[in-house]
């Protein structure tokens, strides 16, 4: 950090080509040599109100704070302004945002919650710190370059048992040290998992949310709940330690939400299944070693764990979100799979898949809501720092009205989510399957419909900046481009809405009349 102090008068003398200083947030920057390299052009820097002056307001109308944190730009700072203190700073690892509605109320000072304990708070701090320090830089890099998450970061996630925790509470956590001891395995509940899902979606990249081994999160539970002890003993440790990767392979070009229509077939040949067919939109499929696969068998629908071999081929599908998710088209060409790899009973695959769907959908709700809250924070900051006609954007009633709707949607979703999470904590796995499928479906469609509205409103607030992949509006651009993923993956929005109502109709008492 440059220690030299200057007065504003001294800085003002450096206001021309070859000798150009500016002040941003009480810090003095020497832009003399940088001016010609400035991505926004050199002439804007020589404007009378900028050269040698305090350019804080104009700077934050055009750049994100992270620009000043990049090493190549941070080193342009040569000192500070005497008697002034810099006030703008990025949150430290683990720190909560103080922007209103940027955090759920349970994390806001002075607010109470019936659901969270001090243990959850401690876990939240440890988890946010971990994500900001270890995962965040990787998230930003991978979202941009489309490369899969590095083994180095996966290894660090395994050290804190992140993958295991993402499967929810259960015996698979026994004997593991969770998030460096921030929670004991017997205390771990769905609110801890909600915290993880919230933290992992805070980096403004929807592709990375799925690239962060979402495939195993949705594909391993069937192994854990329905695999034979031998299969579990081999596969579960490999996947939870990040040594092997796993994907859920249900959807096909032939069938999506209508799981019953799938065409991949498994035919018995002695102690083996011979599996033939294709799967589409398989998250993490490009790099998966195992595929939890929905197959048509003689007696119905059966789920089988298929290990990658030379009869399994995967091809990346170009989607509108980042290739980091490893979305694949998978072809099984007469793959021989031991019958011992069957998950659940033969012909009983629908039960395996349906019970798994609830947790998957709940997870999508958590991450979608978290991403929406990030959008609210971006809009709150932008609307405050963007000056139009001499006033901040927040002075426009139409902007405040959009913020009001956005905030209300996120808060409504959050409250409903916490209620459902509380029920999950107090129901058995089978009870969850029978009682919560409908509410989870309804909540998912509510949250994803909100997401579409939030995408539209935030784009209006950011204007042209929401249309560029980099710069001020990059989070909004990403959200707007990808919010439909949440509305489709794990069950299409309309199907979710319908499921919720159909489940409710089934429970209508025969005694009820107007
Ligand atoms: C330490 C000082 C500065 C640095 C390191 C810097 C760096 C950058 C960078 C990296 C960009 C590319 C866009 C982005 O990544 O956000 C940019 C764009 C720009 N900068 Fe600067 N800048 C500085 C100061 C200023 C100042 C004082 C002005 C005042 C007018 C300015 C005006 C612009 C403009 C107009 C753009 C284009 C913005 C857009 O495309 O939306 N910059 N600057």
UniProtKB/TrEMBL annotation:
Record domain Cytochrome b5 heme-binding: where: 3-82
Record-level GO BP terms: fatty acid beta-oxidation using acyl-CoA dehydrogenase
Keywords of the record: FAD, Flavoprotein, Oxidoreductase
Cofactor(s) it depends on: FAD
Record flagged with keyword Flavoprotein: yes
KW Phosphoprotein (keyword) present: no
Molecular function (Gene Ontology), one example: flavin adenine dinucleotide binding
Domain of life: Eukaryota
Cellular component terms (Gene Ontology): cytoplasm
Pfam families reported in the protein's UniProt record: Acyl-CoA_dh_1 (PF00441), Acyl-CoA_dh_M (PF02770), Acyl-CoA_dh_N (PF02771), Cyt-b5 (PF00173)
Entry similarity comment: Belongs to the acyl-CoA dehydrogenase family.
Name assigned to this protein: Acyl-CoA dehydrogenase/oxidase
Organism in which the protein naturally occurs: Mycena maculata
């Amino acid at each position: 950090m440059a220690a030299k102090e200057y007065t504003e008068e001294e800085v003002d003398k450096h206001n021309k080509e070859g000798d150009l200083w500016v002040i941003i947030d009480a810090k003095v920057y020497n832009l003399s040599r940088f001016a010609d390299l400035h991505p926004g052009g050199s002439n804007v820097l020589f404007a009378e109100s900028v050269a040698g002056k305090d350019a804080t307001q104009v700077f934050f109308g055009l750049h994100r704070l992270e620009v000043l944190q990049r090493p190549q730009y941070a080193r342009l700072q040569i000192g500070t302004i005497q008697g002034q203190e810099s006030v703008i700073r990025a949150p430290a690892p683990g720190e909560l945002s103080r922007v209103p509605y940027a955090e759920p109320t349970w994390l806001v000072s002075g607010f109470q919650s019936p659901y969270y304990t001090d243990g959850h708070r401690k876990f939240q701090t440890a988890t946010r710190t971990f994500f900001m320090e270890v995962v965040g830089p990787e998230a930003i890099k991978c979202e941009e370059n489309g490369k899969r998450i590095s083994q180095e970061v996966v290894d660090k996630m395994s050290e804190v048992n992140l993958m295991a925790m993402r499967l929810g509470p259960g015996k698979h956590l026994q004997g593991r040290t969770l998030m460096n001891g921030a929670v004991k395995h017997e205390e771990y509940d769905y609110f801890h998992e909600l915290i993880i899902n919230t933290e992992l979606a805070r980096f403004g990249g929807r592709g990375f949310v799925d690239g962060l081994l979402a495939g195993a999160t949705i594909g391993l539970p069937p192994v854990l709940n329905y695999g034979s002890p031998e299969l579990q003993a081999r596969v579960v440790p490999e996947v939870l330690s990040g040594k092997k990767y796993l994907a859920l392979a249900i959807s096909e070009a032939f069938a999506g939400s209508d799981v019953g229509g799938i065409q991949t077939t498994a035919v018995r040949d002695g102690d083996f299944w011979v599996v033939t067919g294709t799967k589409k939109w398989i998250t993490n499929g490009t790099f998966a070693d195992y595929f939890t696969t929905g197959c048509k068998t003689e007696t119905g629908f059966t789920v089988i764990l298929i290990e990658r071999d030379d009869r399994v081929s995967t091809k990346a599908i170009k989607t509108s979100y980042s290739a980091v998710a490893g979305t694949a088209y998978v072809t099984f060409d007469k793959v021989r799979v031991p019958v011992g790899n069957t998950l659940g009973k033969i012909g009983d695959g629908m039960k395996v898949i349906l019970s798994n769907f609830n947790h998957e959908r709940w997870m999508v709700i958590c991450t979608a809501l978290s991403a929406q809250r990030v959008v609210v924070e971006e809009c709150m900051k932008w609307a405050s720092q963007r000056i139009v006609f001499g006033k901040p954007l927040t002075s426009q009633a139409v902007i405040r009205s959009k913020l009001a709707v956005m905030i209300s949607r996120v808060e409504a979703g959050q409250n409903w989510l916490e209620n459902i999470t509380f029920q999950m904590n107090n129901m058995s796995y089978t009870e969850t399957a029978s009682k919560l499928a409908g509410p989870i479906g309804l909540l998912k469609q509510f949250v994803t419909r909100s997401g579409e509205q939030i995408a539209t409103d935030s784009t209006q607030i950011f204007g042209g900046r929401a249309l560029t992949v980099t710069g001020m509006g990059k989070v909004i651009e990403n959200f707007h481009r990808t919010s439909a993923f949440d509305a489709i993956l794990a069950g299409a929005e309309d199907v979710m809405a319908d499921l919720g109502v159909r489940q409710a109709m089934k429970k209508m008492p025969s005694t009820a009349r107007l």
